[in-house]
């Protein structure tokens, strides 16, 4: 996140002369997300009701999941309870060379190029080992309709296709909470910032936004779990061309 130097100078000048209440009217302070900070003020209950989830994110060779390939995968485990996320656990991030070029427009977003990933690979067995350390109750991605098809297709042996999934973008009604659904803007609205479009930073930021509390004090993770369990019906239409039919009219007379 590039800091505007003029704004920074005005901020430092005002904080030196005005009270905190005054300068907070003109500036917004954002704190960088981190696993250490997240866990500083949360603790995991010791009873057996704690559940484990995985947050996942990918960076790709392009901008659509249909024809693109994964070049970075990040995973982080989190532990949650009926009253919300309690702590973050182990995390991992790895680069992968799918053998196809990275589109320039994708590099402009995540900053990765062919040289960064050359010769590197992700073994589905390593993903499975990370996941299988303990029972997984849910796998979450921000815009899971993009990430899920990619990882299930490219890392089939990891077993991600056998786990329950949820989407932190679609399974939470952010509009009802008065917030945008884009991850970076969500983090900003809660007072945090991160190095956007790096898969590891994205999964940490996703954990933060899922701690957002609604008017009744419940975290977004609770709404996500509830909505992800609702039955969903997918209707697929197999459209076939309709041949023109010759209509015969009776002869008159």
Describe the structure.
With 253 residues, the chain is of the alpha/beta class. It has two domains: 1-30; 33-228, Ribonuclease H-like superfamily/Ribonuclease H (Nucleotidyltransferase, domain 5, 2-Layer Sandwich), CATH 3.30.420. Helices cover 33% and strands 18% of the residues. The strands form two sheets. Strands 4-3-2-5-6 form a five-stranded mixed sheet. Helix 8 crosses helix 9 (199-209). The radius of gyration is 23 Å and the shape is globular. It holds the Pfam family RNase_T.
Widest sheet: strand order?
A: 4-3-2-5-6
Instruction: Write out the CATH superfamily name of the largest domain.
Output: Ribonuclease H-like superfamily/Ribonuclease H
Whole-Å distance between the termini? 85 Å
Estimate percent helicity: 25-40%
CATH architecture of the largest domain: 2-Layer Sandwich
Protein traits:
single chain; alpha/beta; Nucleotidyltransferase, domain 5; 2 domains; 5-stranded mixed beta sheet; 3'-5' exonuclease activity; nucleic acid binding; RNaseH-like_sf; hydrolase
Task: Describe the protein's topology.
Elements: H1 5-17, H2 20-26, E1 31-32, H3 35-40, E2 51-60, E3 70-81, E4 84-95, H4 104-110, H5 114-117, H6 124-131, E5 138-141, H7 144-154, E6 165-167, H8 183-189, E7 192-193, H9 199-209, H10 220-228
Parallel strand pairs: 1-7, 2-5, 5-6
Antiparallel strand pairs: 2-3, 3-4
Helix pairs in contact: 8-9
Protein name: DNA polymerase III, epsilon subunit
Organism: Paracoccus aminovorans
Domain Exonuclease: 52-219
